[in-house]
Amino acid sequence: MSLFLFLILVALVLGIIGFAVHGLFYLLIIGVLVLLADLFYAGVRFRRGGRKHRIAR
User: Taking the model in full, what pTM does it have?
Assistant: First the structure.
């Protein structure tokens, strides 16, 4: 969960810097890509995390 929140924070900071500073539009694009990758990671992790696996003895 902390990795998810950290990546959201990184994407937000990159997006703000990329939007505010002239000539650093690529940071905005990188921030959006990090956000999309983070949402994909969270979707895979939370969907898979609900299942309980039985240990065969």
Answer: 0.69
